[in-house]
Design a protein that fits this description.
By secondary structure, the protein is mainly alpha-helical. It is built from 5 helices and no strands. The longest helix has 19 residues. The termini are far apart.
């Protein structure tokens, strides 16, 4: 390498020491994923994200390996539970103005239609 020439950097992510100092921001932090999401208070946005993640896991999960199977079962258990905790399925739905029993029926029926077995063996 000639004197004064910079070493060639490989394409891809910046080195970790640069990543931390850049304070990288994800596009989803600027652009809402759902309509009117930007107008919701922070706790409702968090609840919406929790619910969206659960729906995503339930409808897209295949349960073929042990980890995804466990995630599917835990998600189905969360949807079925009638807990009263702040982030229970029922409380999340009611806070977001959704009917929990209707959404529960639809999600579990959709999972069953996709031949996903949501009970422990």
């Amino acid at each position: 390498m000639p004197d004064g020439a910079k070493p060639r950097r490989r394409p891809g992510r910046p080195p970790i020491h640069l990543s931390v100092s850049l304070n990288l921001v994800m596009p989803s932090q600027f652009y809402p994923q759902f309509p009117n999401e930007g107008t919701l208070p922070g706790e409702k946005r968090l609840m919406l994200a929790v619910l969206a993640d659960a729906v995503d896991i339930l409808l897209k999960g295949d349960g073929r390996d042990g980890r995804s199977r466990r995630l599917l079962l835990e998600t189905a258990q969360w949807i079925r539970a009638d807990d009263d905790g702040p982030f229970s399925f029922v409380n999340v739905c009611e806070t977001l103005g959704l009917n929990p029993s209707c959404l529960r029926r639809g999600l579990l029926a959709r999972a069953a239609a996709g031949h996903i077995r949501l009970v422990r063996r």
